[in-house]
Amino acid sequence: AQLAGCQSAWNGPTEALPAAIAACTRCPLHRNATQAVPGEGPRDAALMIVGEQPGDMEDLGGRPFIGPAGQMFDTIAARAGLQREAAYLTNAVKHFKFAPRGKQRLHQRPNGSEIEHCRWWLDAEIAQVKPKLVVAMGATAAQSLTGNGAAILSRRGQIEESRSGVPVLITLHPSYLLRLTDAAAQERAKAQFQADLAQAVAIT
Ligand code: URA
User: Fold this and answer.
1) Which of 28, 91, 105, 182 has a CA positioned 20 to 30 A from the CA of residue 118?
2) How high is the ipTM of this complex?
3) Are 68 and 178 in contact (CB under 8 A)?
4) Can you give the pLDDT at residue 42?
5) So what's the pLDDT on residue 77?
């Protein structure tokens, strides 16, 4: 394990981390977002789950995975025997990136620089929680954790080594499931996501 990578440059006290994330101006995304969304869950969780970035509802509510993607996650996690409250849930990027379109705010994928700037915080969360396993949901989380942003479909279900040395199980992002319009394809993807989460439960 590459322990050196596990030591985040941020080394303030545990309880100060959410406030430090809230005050972050390391990249331009803080300018338009309502607030930063730090991770939530037990500080000693064996399992950490990492998404991409807060969505519209998370940006307004200040908590991760409380919108449609979060509902999809909760549904499939329950089927996999995973209790959301037992895991530490966070995102690779802590501010919502969007493009205004009329009254709507359209989700935009964070770029490599934004992911790298925010990795400072994800590394700090990993250093605090010291999970046994991290689940990367989608390409952004996988890129942040492993340095490899290659397509997820051929990687999912497999365990890779993160830059911090903690094993990372790669899986689909719940928003991807929501975007699938073909019912059979969506059922297949849900089954894969459920199997990956069940594998994470079995490991932890
Ligand atoms: N999508 C994510 O990746 N994270 C959230 O918190 C919400 C939606």
Assistant:
1) 105
2) 0.93
3) yes
4) 97
5) 98
pLDDT given for residue 1 in this prediction:
33
pLDDT mean values, one per 10 residues, the chain (204 residues): 50 89 94 97 97 98 98 98 97 97 94 96 96 98 97 97 96 98 98 98 97
Chain Cα centroid distance, residue 173: 9
Q: Say yes or no: CB of residue 41 within 6 Å of ligand 1.
A: no
Q: How far apart are CA 75 and CA 88, in angstroms?
A: 17
Q: Can you tell me the distance from the alpha carbon of 53 to that of 74, in angstroms, rounded to the nearest whole number?
A: 17
CB of 52 closer than 6 angstroms to any ligand 1 atom: yes
Is residue 76 left, alpha or beta, with left meaning phi > 0 and alpha meaning psi from -120 to 50?
alpha
**Cα–Cα distance for residue pair 56/105, rounded to 1 Å:** 7
Rounded to a whole number of angstroms, the CA Rg of the chain reads 16
For ligand 1, pick from 91, 135, 176 the residue to mutate: most ligand atoms within 8 Å of CB.
91
Give per-residue burial for 16-32: e unless 16+ CB within 10 Å, then b. ebbebbeebebbebeee
Helices (H), 46-180: 56-61, 68-79, 112-129, 139-146, 174-179
For residues 99 and 84, what is the distance between their CA atoms, to the nearest angstrom? 30
Placement of tokens 């990492």 in the chain: 50
Give the global pTM. 0.94
CA atoms within 13 A on the CB side of 181: 0
